[in-house]
Amino acid sequence: MHSELANYLRRCVEGNRHFNLAVGIKPGTLSNGLKYSLATGNWGDQKKAMSSTAGVSQVLNRYTFASTLSHLRRTNTPIGRDGKLAKPRQLHNTHWGLVCPAETPEGQACGLVKNLSLMCYVSVGSPAEPLIDFMINRGMEVIEEYEPLRYPHATKIFVNGTWVGVHQDPKHLVDQVFDTRRKSYLQYEVSLIREIRDQEFKIFSDAGRVMRPVFTVQQKNDPETGLEKGQLGLTKDLVNKLAQEQADPPDDPELKMGWEGLIKAGAIEYLDAEEEETSMICMTPEDLELYRLQKAGLSVDDDHEGGDLN
């Protein structure tokens, strides 16, 4: 484009003609270059294809709706396909609920090209400053004012990997921050990890974290909702409301509850792989029933012990 414009300008000067920029630039120059790059994935000069960056873009698969979703949620491990290493191709226990264990191509790319699971979600990020102000108002001492000799056993608080302060009563602070997330005052994609052994409370609100939804379990008696400790946050009232919406959808979309309504009601929350490491997750509702019986001091039947609850 630069050379074409220079030649046109030279001809205008030599012929003593008026210079017109719209005539000097061919309309297909930019569009043809973009079409080539989007079609082949090679971004750079078409004449210098060897030095251009490859694999930047792909043509979206539109065979079926399911294949389009699969293509959009595909992940690629950037290592050579010819390697005989088995470890990068195998499933890891931290993939549970985040990566589909079955959907992977055959052949050399087996296990290297994976797909996110159906309910998996990638965080988009949210500002952390309001949360830091919230914790300062709840007794957090900022790092600039921290005296290690005065509070040797204080819990350190990290926000997105940055040490921002310490707190003397971490359990009370963690309960308050968890409560704000479940009541939707805090973004649902914020991860809260308390490492009791290391005396650390880590908070992540950055983008790019892979998360999965789980049903919440009440951690203490709540007089507002009437839920007791150990009960599921998904109540029969919420289930009946969802069923009623399916049968008779409301005219106003804002009145619809749906998935977002369950998150705002605190019945569902998203966990990333790191928060999952510090959470006790039941696999079936029967696990909760056994937990309540054991907490009450009742004996559990032999049918339950060692049985397959799945």
TrEMBL record:
<dbReference type="InterPro" id="IPR007647">
    <property type="entry name" value="RNA_pol_Rpb2_5"/>
</dbReference>
<dbReference type="GO" id="GO:0000428">
    <property type="term" value="C:DNA-directed RNA polymerase complex"/>
</dbReference>
<dbReference type="GO" id="GO:0003899">
    <property type="term" value="F:DNA-directed RNA polymerase activity"/>
</dbReference>
<dbReference type="Pfam" id="PF04565">
    <property type="entry name" value="RNA_pol_Rpb2_3"/>
</dbReference>
<keyword id="KW-0548">Nucleotidyltransferase</keyword>
<dbReference type="Pfam" id="PF04566">
    <property type="entry name" value="RNA_pol_Rpb2_4"/>
</dbReference>
<dbReference type="GO" id="GO:0006351">
    <property type="term" value="P:DNA-templated transcription"/>
</dbReference>
<comment type="similarity">
    <text>Belongs to the RNA polymerase beta chain family.</text>
</comment>
<dbReference type="InterPro" id="IPR015712">
    <property type="entry name" value="DNA-dir_RNA_pol_su2"/>
</dbReference>
<dbReference type="InterPro" id="IPR007645">
    <property type="entry name" value="RNA_pol_Rpb2_3"/>
</dbReference>
<keyword id="KW-0808">Transferase</keyword>
<keyword id="KW-0240">DNA-directed RNA polymerase</keyword>
<feature type="domain" description="RNA polymerase Rpb2">
    <location>
        <begin position="157"/>
        <end position="218"/>
    </location>
</feature>
<dbReference type="Pfam" id="PF04567">
    <property type="entry name" value="RNA_pol_Rpb2_5"/>
</dbReference>
<protein>
    <recommendedName>
        <fullName>DNA-directed RNA polymerase</fullName>
        <ecNumber>2.7.7.6</ecNumber>
    </recommendedName>
</protein>
<dbReference type="GO" id="GO:0003677">
    <property type="term" value="F:DNA binding"/>
</dbReference>
<dbReference type="InterPro" id="IPR007646">
    <property type="entry name" value="RNA_pol_Rpb2_4"/>
</dbReference>
<feature type="domain" description="RNA polymerase Rpb2">
    <location>
        <begin position="58"/>
        <end position="122"/>
    </location>
</feature>
<keyword id="KW-0804">Transcription</keyword>
<dbReference type="GO" id="GO:0032549">
    <property type="term" value="F:ribonucleoside binding"/>
</dbReference>
<feature type="domain" description="RNA polymerase Rpb2">
    <location>
        <begin position="259"/>
        <end position="303"/>
    </location>
</feature>
